Structure to design on (246 residues):
C-alpha cells in the first residue's frame, strides 16, 4: 500500500485518521508541532496494525518544515495520499477586537500551511510531475458556512479559504490523476476547544446540534479515509459535512 502523509496527526481528528488509515493498510507518516509523546503513541498504535509508521516534527506554518515532512514520507515509499488536517482555533473575540497579529498567525497555519501542503502533494502525485496519481483530503470546518459570529469569524474565514482551495485544486488536477476533497467537521470532541480557551464548548454546544451531541474524531476519520480510498474514485471537488446536521 502507498504512503499517506497526515499533517497534525498526533492528536484529535488527525490521530484518528492515522489509526483508521493504518487499519486500512496505508503506511503513514504523521506530522506534529510539539507533543512528541502523543505523536509516538499514535505511531505505536498504527504499527500494531502491521504497517510502517513514523512521526515528524513539522510546523505547517514553516515552509521548510513541510518540505522536510514530505521528504521523510518519500523515504518510506511512493506517496499515495495526503490529509491536510493541521489547524488551530483562536480565542473567542469579535472582529472589532481582533489584532492583525492574531489573524496572521492563524492564517499562516490554516491557510498558508494547507496551500503549501497541497503544493508538495501535487508535486509528487500528479501525472504532470511524473507521479501515478493519488488523493488529497482537506480538513475544513462547518464554521466556513456558519461564520462563527461572536466566536471566531477569522477562523471561519480561514476555513472558507480551505473549502475554496479544495474546489479549485480539484479542478486544476482532475485530469492528472489526483482527487481532492474537503471534509467539514462540526463540533467534535477533541482538545482543540480548550486550546481556543473554551474547554466547555463540546458540553455546552453539543446538545444544540440537531442530532443532540458532539461528534467523535473517529466519525470524522471514517469520512476522510473513505474519501482517500478507491471506493471514492468518482469523488473530487466534493465537500462532505460531518456535522450532525448542524
Ligand atoms: P487538536 O485536537 O487540537 O489537534 C491538532 C493537531 O494538529 C495536533 O496533532 C497538533 O500537534 C497539530 N498541529 C497544531 N498546529 C500545528 C502546526 N502549526 N503544524 C503542525 N501541526 C500542528 O485539533 P482537532 O480538533 O483534531 O482539529 C483538526 C482539524 O480539524 C483542524 O484543522 C480543525 O480546524 C478542524 N476542525 C476541528 C473541529 C473540532 O470541533 N474539533 C471542528 C471543525 C474542524 P501538537 O499536538 O504537536 O500540537
Amino acid at each position: 500500500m502507498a504512503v499517506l502523509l497526515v499533517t497534525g496527526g498526533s492528536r484529535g481528528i488527525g490521530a484518528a485518521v492515522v489509526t483508521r488509515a493504518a487499519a486500512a493498510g496505508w503506511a503513514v507518516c504523521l506530522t506534529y508541532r510539539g507533543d512528541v509523546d502523543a505523536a509516538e503513541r499514535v505511531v505505536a498504535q498504527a504499527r500494531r496494525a502491521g504497517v510502517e509508521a513514523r512521526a515528524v516534527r513539522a510546523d505547517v506554518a514553516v515552509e521548510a518544515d513541510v518540505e522536510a515532512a514530505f521528504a521523510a514520507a518519500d523515504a518510506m515509499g511512493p506517496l499515495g495520499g495526503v490529509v491536510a488536517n493541521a489547524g488551530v482555533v483562536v480565542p473567542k473575540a469579535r472582529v472589532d477586537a481582533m489584532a492583525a497579529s492574531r489573524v496572521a498567525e492563524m492564517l499562516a497555519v490554516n491557510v498558508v500551511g494547507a496551500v503549501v501542503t497541497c503544493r508538495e502533494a501535487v508535486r509528487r502525485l500528479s501525472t504532470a510531475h511524473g507521479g501515478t496519481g493519488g488523493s488529497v483530503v482537506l480538513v475544513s470546518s462547518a464554521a466556513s458556512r456558519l461564520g462563527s459570529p461572536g466566536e471566531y469569524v477569522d477562523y471561519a474565514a480561514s476555513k472558507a479559504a480551505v473549502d475554496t482551495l479544495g474546489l479549485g485544486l480539484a479542478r486544476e488536477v482532475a485530469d492528472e490523476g489526483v482527487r481532492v476533497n474537503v471534509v467539514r467537521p462540526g463540533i467534535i470532541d477533541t482538545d482543540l476547544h480548550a486550546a481556543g480557551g473554551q474547554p466547555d464548548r463540546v458540553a455546552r454546544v453539543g446538545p444544540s446540534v440537531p442530532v443532540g451531541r458532539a461528534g467523535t474524531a473517529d466519525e470524522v476519520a471514517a469520512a476522510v479515509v473513505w474519501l482517500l480510498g478507491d471506493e471514492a474514485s468518482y469523488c473530487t471537488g466534493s465537500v462532505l459535512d460531518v456535522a450532525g446536521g448542524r
